[in-house]
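#lab-general

N.A. 3:47 PM
ok so I finally got the sequence cleaned up, no stray characters, all 276 residues accounted for. can someone with queue access submit it? mine expired

B.Y. 3:52 PM
send it over

N.A. 3:53 PM
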Amino acid sequence: MNDWQLTRTFAGPNGEIRWDRLGRADRPPVVLLHGTPFSSFVWRAVARSLARDHQVYVWDMPGYGQSEKAEGQDVSLDAQGRAFTELLAHWELAGPLVVAHDFGGAVALRAHLLHGARYRALALVDPVALAPWGSPFFRLVGEHAAVFEQLPPALHEALVREYVSSASSPGLHPAVLDRLVEPWLGDAGQPAFYRQIAQADQRWTDEIQERYGEIRVPVRVCWGADDAWIPLERGHELAARIPGAVLETVPGAGHLVQEDAPAELTGVLLDFLRKA
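B.Y. 4:20 PM
back already:
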């Protein structure tokens, strides 16, 4: 679990971004985007599998995982979309295959529709893309982030552990849960956790929701059948809005499909990437 370390850095517009690359440089590029409150760590099994035939790029968004966390940092979907566009330019990737989970889906969609990021194909895994989104807990924390920041560390950790756990349907391995919670602890991590929730404004998806019909690259929508965070019905609606998009359901998986069913998800993605 502890061997997932991002060894490269990029000075992004909203803080230092940690990233890495797996696989041979002469293979087709694939970029993986994580969601919230996660990091590239959730992609580790899928990334290593895809790296057999692809050049795989992974990164932690500013304010997440191993990337910089700072007071006053802009970690909104707007900022992340711009950061991703700059990172693609830094990598000199003109048309990669893009796979995006949760908030990463909104980031990839914003970069494509608003900032001109070009993709060869796009796979969206349980993405944040259609209003309304955000659980009652998520909205409560967003409205009172300054109060939650003052929680004693032990209570904060218990809250984060319970929240992250709810993203899995069968349940997370204890070591995996520890690794997912760890970035949100301590003097930098605790305020960063509430900062990213406080800045999670639905207007950033409202801005692009009616433009999904403009997407012309191949799109595969993947959804955990037991997703308790974003219901499967949203997957059907999203696929219907994007021309030619196909919905793939992953049985037995919750919102965190990468942890609940990594082999099944990898199979879906490999099939899509071969055809794209």
